[in-house]
Amino acid sequence: MNWIVFALVAWIAFGLEIGLRPLISPGDGSIAPSFVIPILVYISLWAPARTALWGALILGLGADLLSSIDLAPSGSATIIGPRAIGYLLAAQLVIASRGVVIGRSPVTLVVLSIVAAFVAGVVVVAFYTLRSFYDPVVWNPGRQLSVRFFSALYTGLSALGMSLVLIPLGSAFRFPHAPGARFARRA
Fold it and tell me: Domain holding 109: CATH number?
């Protein structure tokens, strides 16, 4: 995998996620699509398993560093780990399903992005719920699960749009059998 292309695409996705959240989030802004999860799914579909898991870990650490949780009296904290582990599990789920999906289809990217976003969201909710037993975090697990569910559905819409960009980028990522690699010029 071309790590420079990965870094550039991830940087753009994190920028979209941070910059567009206030504009496209309904209500109080808690439900929002992820632009990073479709990249995670795309990488997990086409990269070798070990490379995909490293990519998922990097994306998860980036997501952890860009998010914070409110503390009970006042303030907030950045906790590294929940999203990184959630993204790892989501990537492993996509890797395990590679043999039974049509990788070149945008529908595959949409459906697996919804599932991966929800799996990662459940892991994040589980970690923060366990942490709320001994740490003064402001956390409601039921509300957070519903927010993660609707955000996962909303992520499917972003995955549909991103599939138009990601699928032709297969040769730029230099995956062995990625879409677009069939028509790419060989050096």
Answer: 1.10.1760
Domain total for the chain? Answer: 1
Average pLDDT over residues 79-105: 94
For residues 15-28, average pLDDT: 88
Interval 112-163: pLDDT, tens: 999 999 999 999 999 999 988 888 888 889 999 999 999 999 999 999 999 9
Contact 65, 96 (CB under 8 A): no
Structure tokens at 21: 């959240």
Are 129 and 88 spatial neighbours (Cβ–Cβ below 8 Å)? no
Domain membership of residue 68 (yes or no) is: yes
**Residue 19, helix vs strand vs coil:** helix
Q: What is the pTM of this model?
A: 0.90
CA 59 to chain centre: 7
Average pLDDT, the chain: 90
Please report whether residue 25 resides in a domain: no
Strand spans (E) along 27-166: 69-70, 76-77
Q: Is the torsion defined by CA of 26, 30, 31, 36 positive or negative? A: positive
In a domain, 178, yes or no: no
Per the structure, the complete domain to which residue 115 belongs is given by 3-14+35-173
